[in-house]
Amino acid sequence: MSSKEPTVRPRNEAEGEVPQWQPQPIARPGGGSSPIVEKALADVRRKIYPRSVSGLFAKWRVALVYFTQLIYYGLPWLQWNDRQAVLFDLGARKFYIFGMVLWPQDIIYLTVLLVISAFSLFLFTALAGRLFCGYACPQTVYTEIFMWVERKVEGDRLARIRLDESPWNLRKLRLKVTKHTLWILIALWTGFTFIGYFAPIRELFVGVFAGTLSFWQWFWMLFYGFATWGNAGFMREHVCKYMCPYARFQSVMVDQDTFVVTYDYVRGEPRGGRSRRIDHKEAGMGDCVDCSLCVQVCPTGIDIREGMQYMCIGCGACVDACDTVMDKMDYPRGLIRYTSANAIKEGLTQQQVRKRMMRPRTLVYTGILLAVIIAFMVSLATRTTLRVDVIRDRGALGREVPGGLIENVYRLQFINTAEDALQIKLSATGLPELVVTTADGQSSTVQVDPASNRLVPIVVRVPAGQVQPGLYDIQFHAHATSGEGREVEVVEPSSFYVPN
After folding, report:
1. 350-396 tens-digit pLDDT
2. Which of 330, 362, 383 finishes a domain?
3. Would the N or C end of the chain have less CB density within 10 A of its end CB?
4. Per the confidence metrics, is the pTM higher than 0.85?
């Protein structure tokens, strides 16, 4: 999506600005490098030094950093029923999520969660562009953390530029070593926490100091830590601009009514420096003083005044910077604000813009999303905590045993997904006088421990004179009772073979 925008005059690149350039025809083979290619390569190589900014949206970003990292770092340490509250135990093939235990048979729930995530992404993008990118994306969050460390160690924007341009000396070495040491510690703790979601984190903590972690645990902890250090410390905006697929396909979900960070070129142009004492309207000037702060604070290094660009992550840093300048100039806030392209073009109020957010596209996304979420919640609320799989013994389909009985042998797989033990009473229907016992013939009751599975051989007998030779449909009934008085009943179909 792009908006109409007047020509921007060149600015000083040393001030962190991107000079205006005009696209040139691509050179033919043998005729030298293309200016477009050279410009693209220069943008990739150019290091961006974002300036610190304060304001409403900066506070929101900091709040989201605290909120997301409190959940990420703290969740694995929570306990639930004497176990880790959230644990994706790949070895045992169980996912523990507070009081819920998911098994491989519950893969449908993971599928539905992915569908919900996809439609949420479509909805939020259609409503507010890359809002997730600007406030909650892990790349943005860890980049914000690493930049905070960088500012504390090396100083703000101009101090970092001077430090990087200065020759190597003891002070520069000390600052760089301090910064990277702190970065690496944060990255390693992040990698350790990541592994803690797949193995008990308290045992991992002991294993790190005892040196008892497995090769793959060490590998993934170091790999994830290295990825955090590299992405948040070095690659930063390049991940958002060149590696993230979301930045590429968001254009199909954004339209002229999407609520995004937008420069009001109608109000701001023509831009230019001026004194606070003059009446800029009488002088034929817009509200933009061309201070370039909106560019200096941008984490991806774009100029929002050039129109909407896919590199914009919607963080609102330029909004805070511009509002600060407007306050100093005694101009109304909102020269750069969250609004839509149609709002600028048609002069709509913010209330009118918000009404247009509820348009057919977003209503369809909302309806589908709500339907899937409701179905997901109902399915979770009504799911049974006992599963029974019936496996016939292929080695003995049916046989006559002493006492004039026909016997079939089965193996029943019981899966208890609850946090308490189950006492299961077995019976069968479908033929007259069916008798169900365990393989030893002593009982028709089975005990299954909490959050575990058990494979039990089962024998089913029927008097030989009651049925003719053939294959009959029967049903196994498993009536389970927990120590807390909760009752569950499961019916599973199978077949009973009567030999000639």
Report:
1. 888 888 888 888 888 899 999 999 999 998 888 888 889 998 877 67
2. 383
3. C
4. no
